[in-house]
Amino acid sequence: MSDQIQFIVEKLNQEPFRKNYNLITFDSLESMQLLQLLNDVLGEIDPKHAVDIREELPEQTAKRMLTLLGILKYKPPGSISDLSAFRQGLVTGSKPVIHPVLHWLLQKTNELKKRAYLARFLVKLEVPAEFLQDDTVADINKQYEELMEAFKNLHKECEQLKTSGLSTAEIRRDISAMEEEKDQLIKRVERLKKRVETVQNHQRMLEIARQLRLEKEREESLAQQKQEQKNQFFHAEQRLQRVQLQLKEMHDAVVDSKPESLMKKLEEEINFNSYLVTEKNPRELQSKKNSTYFLQKVVAEPAMSQSDLNVLETKINEVNAQLNQLIEKRMMKYEPVDSKFSMYRQQASIISRKKEAKAEELKAAKEEMSSAERQMLQKTNQAHELEGSEVLKGDELKHYVNKLRSKNTVYKKKRLEIAEITAEYGILQRTEELLKQRHEAIQQQLQAIEDKKGISGYSYTQEELERVSAVKSEMDEMKGRTLDNMSDMVKKLNSLVAEKKASLAPVIKELRQLRQKCQELTQECDEKKIQYDSCAAGLESNRSALEQEVKGLLEECAQEESNYHYINCMKRNVEIQLQRAKEEMKAYVSPDPQERRKAIREQYTRMILEQENLGKKLREKQKVVRESHGPNMKQMKMWQDFEQLMECKRECFLKQQNQTAIGQVIQEGGKDRLVL
């Protein structure tokens, strides 16, 4: 149930809902809010249902939702077998009813949108049988069913075209290109037939050619299958290597999971780093400084000849011999025979040398490991690029789409160019055949003229002589160049062999000594390896047993921890509910009227009384308005008639005034005439 609610909250927080819920706020929603939320989800699936449920009756809301859920083929869970109980829960906004519906709708939003769209046209209207007796109604119903079937077929074709990804323009171009290729192939087949008909046993040769073509096609298909299997094998090996690498990393991470082992490992790293800082690196730095000093001194001195070098080598040997003698005398003089210091010194020097050698090996191993990690990271990035595991978003996706479009346009242009070149190639091939036919006709005419003159084969013999002479001259030039190249190559090889012999002579002497030393070290290494393998086998068996034990304990710990957190959350919820119930009970039984007014029950009771009083007042007002509606309408009609009567009187009065004014003007004009 918690996973279901988590999924619902995640989907509601995404587009197009963007509710910004969390588990607590979603769980605290009231029944009306849950119903409105369910209605919003249904409105997203079918826009006709995007309404406010407060503006319609609960029965209408439930009927509308049940109708849409029936169209979407929603089946109530097994715990709600009775449809009336499901309907009642949908009316009241019950959480056990609303939550599964929301989970089902949000899981299949896109599929349900398509189903709701199709339901507008494919849900058949049930016409009663008595109405179908009428011919007109029956014809209209038949047309309705035919249009429904046509819509089904058109929708299927539309979906297939959407998934195919082809456009009509591209199809037309492909058809035109294929028709041109077809015409060219037909012409070519006709020409080949004409040429083959003159050959003996052409039917048998055609059959053999057909078998050859079939075998070549089979060979190509087998080669393609072989390549595919090779690719699959290569990808499988890559996946195996990645899995093995992940397994090794997990093993390495689990091996030193205890604090004691981690501390021990850190101490070893600290000791190694301190040894490098305090002993090894200063000694190497001093040796590098000394060698640099001597090299600078050698560079500063003038150039020395071979005799000078020989003199220096003899001096160095003499000084070394004297130094060895002095060391032996000192050892004989200051150290008694029965003393053990010499043995301890030798052991200390051996241990120090071994320590230095192991430090060098460890340093080299670390460098090799770091380089291997870098290579692994590069290979991982290359694998991601080849497999395309990254998802492009935003501007990168737009850039990729634009790049694909540009490539598509280039591809179409190149395709048109190829079609043009193919057509031109057919024309040129036809021209070549015509020229060959003309050449053959001319050759036949020439042969007939030669036969007529009695010199048949003259032109052919002349052409052959010219061709043979040209080939002979080319072969002579090639032989001369080849001999010169071979002589130069032999000289170079002899000089290189002599140089290599001279340079490899001291190396070969040194290599013999190193081989003997290598055999001794190999024998010692084999003995040490046997000891190491036996020790490693014992440690590996102990490690696997400890890994199984640690894995079981970790799983048990994770399970107990999840149970602990779940019980704590449930306990906290119960405590909050108990606290709210105690506060409500305390406020309800309190003798103080102010405290009792704070109780939720009192608040709701007061609100109910206020709403009831308001409803009574509105009903009384409605009654008064209903009783006075008839007389008021009659009075309004009388006033309208009175207004029309007064308007008519006003117009008559204005007309009368205009007529009196005109009469006065006429009378004044008559008086003026009488005076004149």
Automatic annotation (TrEMBL):
<dbReference type="GO" id="GO:0007283">
    <property type="term" value="P:spermatogenesis"/>
</dbReference>
<dbReference type="InterPro" id="IPR041146">
    <property type="entry name" value="IFT81_CH"/>
</dbReference>
<dbReference type="GO" id="GO:0030992">
    <property type="term" value="C:intraciliary transport particle B"/>
</dbReference>
<comment type="similarity">
    <text>Belongs to the IFT81 family.</text>
</comment>
<keyword id="KW-0744">Spermatogenesis</keyword>
<dbReference type="InterPro" id="IPR043016">
    <property type="entry name" value="IFT81_N_sf"/>
</dbReference>
<keyword id="KW-0966">Cell projection</keyword>
<keyword id="KW-0969">Cilium</keyword>
<feature type="coiled-coil region">
    <location>
        <begin position="309"/>
        <end position="389"/>
    </location>
</feature>
<dbReference type="GO" id="GO:0042073">
    <property type="term" value="P:intraciliary transport"/>
</dbReference>
<keyword id="KW-0963">Cytoplasm</keyword>
<dbReference type="GO" id="GO:0060271">
    <property type="term" value="P:cilium assembly"/>
</dbReference>
<keyword id="KW-0206">Cytoskeleton</keyword>
<dbReference type="InterPro" id="IPR029600">
    <property type="entry name" value="IFT81"/>
</dbReference>
<keyword id="KW-0970">Cilium biogenesis/degradation</keyword>
<comment type="function">
    <text>Component of the intraflagellar transport (IFT) complex B: together with IFT74, forms a tubulin-binding module that specifically mediates transport of tubulin within the cilium. Binds tubulin via its CH (calponin-homology)-like region. Required for ciliogenesis. Required for proper regulation of SHH signaling. Plays an important role during spermatogenesis by modulating the assembly and elongation of the sperm flagella.</text>
</comment>
<keyword id="KW-0597">Phosphoprotein</keyword>
<keyword id="KW-0221">Differentiation</keyword>
<dbReference type="GO" id="GO:0015631">
    <property type="term" value="F:tubulin binding"/>
</dbReference>
<feature type="coiled-coil region">
    <location>
        <begin position="137"/>
        <end position="246"/>
    </location>
</feature>
<keyword id="KW-0175">Coiled coil</keyword>
<feature type="coiled-coil region">
    <location>
        <begin position="504"/>
        <end position="563"/>
    </location>
</feature>
<dbReference type="GO" id="GO:0036064">
    <property type="term" value="C:ciliary basal body"/>
</dbReference>
<dbReference type="Pfam" id="PF18383">
    <property type="entry name" value="IFT81_CH"/>
</dbReference>
<keyword id="KW-0007">Acetylation</keyword>
<dbReference type="GO" id="GO:0030154">
    <property type="term" value="P:cell differentiation"/>
</dbReference>
<feature type="domain" description="IFT81 calponin homology">
    <location>
        <begin position="3"/>
        <end position="126"/>
    </location>
</feature>
<protein>
    <recommendedName>
        <fullName>Intraflagellar transport protein 81 homolog</fullName>
    </recommendedName>
</protein>
